[in-house]
User: Fold Sensor histidine kinase from Candidatus Limivivens intestinipullorum.
Amino acid sequence: MSLAFRLGTVAFTMGLMALALYILAAGILGRKIHWKSLGIFFLCAEAVQWITLGISIAMSFMGFNEDVVTSSVFDLVCYTITAVISACLLARAHRLPMLYTMSASVLGTFIANTANSLMVQVVEEYAPLFDRQHFLAFVRLYIPYILTVVVAWLAALIMRKSEFQRYFSAMFRGKGRGWMTLLVCYALMCTMPVLQLIAPDITPDVGYATFFSALIVVGLFLLQFAAMYTAGQDKIRAQEETILQQQAHMALLEELQQEIRAFRHDFTNLFSGLTLQAQEGDLAGIQDFMRRTSSYFDEKLGSEIAQMDGLNNIELYPLRSLLAAKLAKMRQMRVKGVLEALEPVRREQSMDTDDLLRALGILLDNAIEAVPAQNGQVRVVLLQEEKGLYLAVANNYEKTPDLPALARKGYTTKGSGRGTGLSSYRRIVARYRGCASRTYLKDGMFVQELHIPA
Assistant:
């Protein structure tokens, strides 16, 4: 075979492995293929593999024997660098956390390499012998790698249809669980090279490849089981929070009912005085009475009724419960809370409900903690539009906030170790394409806006 054919075959097989890896990583994340990122990754992966191959060849020319240890180390380095490149491109293309995409890329590398090993052994076991070397290379090299891409595509399709990413993403709700998931995935990826180090005399065959295929199934099953358990625990905690929020909502209704009863009692006494004024023909007194009564009504019941109207316009029940709980907290702290939701807020939003609750919860908690000790005010506005949901949280303040400092990661005015809220908020917003946030000062209020596209 000519040198050009040999080099072309190596480049082709390397490219197919890169394609399989990217397809699997995207499938694990539940994302569609981003073609620009795929093209960049294809070129980078080819470069990494050619550099690794060149170093190996150079070492053999320099007299270094390429033993099993050297080959395994080269494989591990190549796998790791390729997975890091894939993770960076996926994180940038889909605006996902690096830890999340890195775990998916490492797991995708393990699955792609194992599937390729299985395909190679199957073809070598059952392919007939040929004298023509070009045809032999096609059967024993081209076909296994093409089958590897097909298997990767089918695996990614199955994971996307089964919504595997929902369970996989549950492992990254906390940093500890996320790092543990990455370590498990990396251990799986290192299994084949490490086994070659431990038992270099093992000859790869169909049984060898089948073992690793079973390892894929077991590994994915354990990951999904752990993710389902984690998601179940998160769901239980979310239900407990919902119950507490519902109790806060009921407390608001009871408080409004008591205010209505008190107003009815007061209004009866006031109306008695109005009757006497009417009998005496005191028109000025009646007008003054109406003015005082209107002011009294707004003071006693106006804000509560406005809040109830706003809450009733929120069709997304978890969001309604969260706002009811925060408004109840404001009343306990004697902070004036104002809610405006003039149009119905739809149940379906482009942002995941859990992320929406976390984002709004961070803004509300920051606003409540930042108001002055006296005459604190927090204003919440939700506006449902055809193009998406607009929400804003505004609060008054004693000391003017430092807006440039707020943009820095970890900045806080609450003390050491408590500056993670806004960083978490920014990470949540960055996950969703088209989401836009803005922070500014206006009329003595610190305003934070968020626009979520439809």
Observations:
- Residues 206-280 form the longest helix (75 residues).
